[in-house]
Amino acid sequence: MYTLGINAAFHDSSACLVRDGQVIAAAEEERFTRIKHAKRPVPFAAWELPFHAIDYCLAEADLELTDVAHVAYALDPSLLPDTGRSAATIALPLEPSAQPPARADDPGASPWEPLFLAYVMNAPRQLAGGAPHHLTRRFRGARPDGPYRWHFVEHHAAHEASAYLAAPFERMAVMTLDGRGERATTTFGLYRDGKYRRLKQVDYPHSLGLLYEDVTRHLGFLHSSDEYKVMALASYGEPRCLEAFRSLLRLDGEGGYRERGERGWTMEHAYYGPGYSDRDIEALLRWSGAPYRRAQNISDETAELLARGRIVGWFQGRMEFGPRALGARSILASPIDAGMQQRLNALKDREDFRPVAPVVLEEALGDWFTPAHANGGRAPYMLFVYDVRPERVVRIPAVRHVNGTARVQTVNRAQNPRYYEAVRAFGERTGVPVLVNTSFNSRSEPMVCTPKDALECFWTTPLDALAIGSYIVQKSGSTQARS
């Protein structure tokens, strides 16, 4: 049985295909349209669905839309705040943004809410009839009523499930925070004995996520886009405003209950996006006229380039799902040179305060970072911050942020064999089983998706080499390491 999941109401539109509880394909729309975050999270963009990502997921299983049994949409319009609508109509001002709040009793209520509701309610019709012309083949025969069964899923329930259904633990605490869902903005819950129980819920307009957006905007960045820059700046700050921020919070300890479904699936990696065969890659390399050679061992030869100070674009296997480069669409470099962070930020035209992250062999985590026991000694999705061990700082200065921390990714052989072997081979040469890993993209661009994207990024940035499939592409004049 196939289930298609769709995230489309807000930002970073994406799709996922699940077969009998196992994720088999997942991708963000931005990787195909080349529009960062796919769209802006404004109410009048809620009609846009991730058709390219849906098309990819269906193609990965050689399906058409009518072959799936269920479609799950990550927002439930029945839970949206009341806008005074009747069963069949909504009231929408001609110029919503020029109007006062939709409800006088709620100053946070948006006058755009009726239009947002209408677009979400009509998502089944948009899916059935709104695909771009060049993608219509996989959507033919679909109707607003199926033949699949449509499910509007509460937004934070989807967030919660993405944590406890994918995690390798029998019991766990779960916390979700974002700008807003339907009403919820923050939830706390407990997963135990195959069931999930929500313990607390904070409702809109009280939202840490929206506060985070306000801070992002206050610093001159683009909200709902540049929050990761604020994350990078956080380590430079002092807690002068801590009490002021704390005064904005009030916890009530109330919550609800939600039962876990069947899916027994544990998320071991995030490589659910498009992948390309050596045959496809070599055909493009030949067509483009790029100077390339086939490597005898792509991981070993890449490690040699990295040990000699080269910066390498790494394009291997199926693309990562999510915001982080995790060794499928990455730029790799040595962490030993203290100047590597600035070289990479210059290469990607990034702000100079932004750090670069390390990837370390899972079994070597405790030798280089602390506390090693945190998170079960694994950090495969680059979500956790560790301290660099003081005695190791001099060996990996490029990945140590100004406050002594690093946002670490661990990798084991089962998750990504070529990536693991590249880190291991670099460690054999240098004594450092750690590499710099940053996303394979240039400024304001999404991560590369296709071999063509990789080649274009390679030739338009100062990358020294490209390890793409089983092939290595190098620029003339890159035989000497740069100082």
Strand and helix map with partners:
Layout: E1 2-7, E2 14-19, E3 22-28, H1 30-33, H2 51-60, E4 70-73, H3 113-121, H4 123-129, E5 149-152, H5 155-164, E6 172-177, E7 184-192, E8 195-203, H6 208-218, H7 227-234, H8 242-246, H9 278-288, E9 292-294, H10 298-307, E10 312-315, E11 329-333, H11 340-347, E12 357-361, H12 365-368, E13 369-370, E14 384-388, E15 405-411, H13 417-430, E16 434-439, H14 451-459, E17 465-468, E18 471-474
Parallel strand pairs: 1-4, 4-5, 10-17, 12-15
Antiparallel strand pairs: 1-2, 2-3, 6-7, 7-8, 9-18, 10-11, 11-16, 12-16, 13-14, 14-15, 17-18
List key phrases describing it.
single chain, 483 residues, alpha+beta, Nucleotidyltransferase, domain 5, DHBP synthase, 10-stranded mixed sheet, globular, disordered C terminus
In short:
The protein has 483 residues and is of the alpha+beta class.
What does this structure look like?
There is one protein chain. The chain has 483 residues and is of the alpha+beta class. The protein contains 14 helices and 18 strands. The protein has three domains: 2-153, ATPase, nucleotide binding domain (Nucleotidyltransferase, domain 5, 2-Layer Sandwich), CATH 3.30.420; 158-246, ATPase, nucleotide binding domain (Nucleotidyltransferase, domain 5, 2-Layer Sandwich), CATH 3.30.420.40; 278-474, Alpha-Beta Complex (DHBP synthase), CATH 3.90.870. Helices cover 25% and strands 20% of the residues. The protein is globular and about 70 Å long.
